[in-house]
Amino acid sequence: MHITLIGAGPRGLLILERLLSWQQNRFPKRQLTIVLTDPYPIGGRVWKIDQDPNLIMNTAASQITLFTDQTVTNVGPFLTGPDLSTWALTTASGYLDAHPEFNNRAILLRQAAALGPNNYASRALYGVYQHWFFNMLVARAGNNSITFKQQTVVSLAKNAANFTITTDQESWHTDQVVMALGNLKNSLTRDQKALDDYAHAHDLFYLAPGFPEEGDLSTIEPQAPVIIRGLGLSFFDLMSRLTEGRGGRFQKTADGLLAYHPSGREPHIFTGSRRGFPY
């Protein structure tokens, strides 16, 4: 059977693991040919390994895992393994050493060594965990074939007997398709479009909601007034990029609190939300 998984982030990897467990438990002699496709490397867009290592997850490391246990009721045996914090302590160093192509490897090594169960890992480090998990599944695949194609799917057509997948590089037929698309880019709302139009008309900078890690903030000058609308997850990403990302640093004081030492390259940030508090 030929199966295509569209999306190679956490959901796509979890589906891959369950398919392999199902096959090995129920139909060990039946071969699966599985293709994962994603325009970004393993881990997908949100968990890119080469992103700013100051951007962190919103869940404690000990609560992050791609493995299964007795709480999983799907078909197939359990595949137990380390959560993110345990992996960082036991496995991350050797895996990072084996992959010199990761351009922020030195920072990730330091992050892994310091990560505790109740700490919040960087999104880049979780990307390495997913990279390791995928390679572990490939090594355990047995008689199955697993291929990753870093390509963008542009068309999916249902035929009489199967599906035709077309990417920006090639086409192939597949028996089954699973879409694990993750977070997608949205069109601007009417209010957002109005803000964008106003910014263009008055030579201002406007960054629409989306993936804050990818927004170009280089045109924001030091001490320039900046409004961040909303106090959710994107707020913290933007705050990090405009403070620590510009050379500022936090230092622990004698009473255990953190004091921020600016670099002088930060803008003047105004922020707020309808609820009025971070969430």
From TrEMBL:
Domain FAD-dependent urate hydroxylase HpyO/Asp monooxygenase CreE-like FAD/NAD(P)-binding: 5-183
SUPFAM superfamilies in the record: FAD/NAD(P)-binding domain
TM segment ranges: none
Coiled coil: none
Entry-linked PANTHER family: BLR0577 PROTEIN
Name of the protein: FAD-dependent urate hydroxylase HpyO/Asp monooxygenase CreE-like FAD/NAD(P)-binding domain-containing protein
Lineage, highest ranks first: Bacteria, Bacillati, Bacillota, Bacilli, Lactobacillales
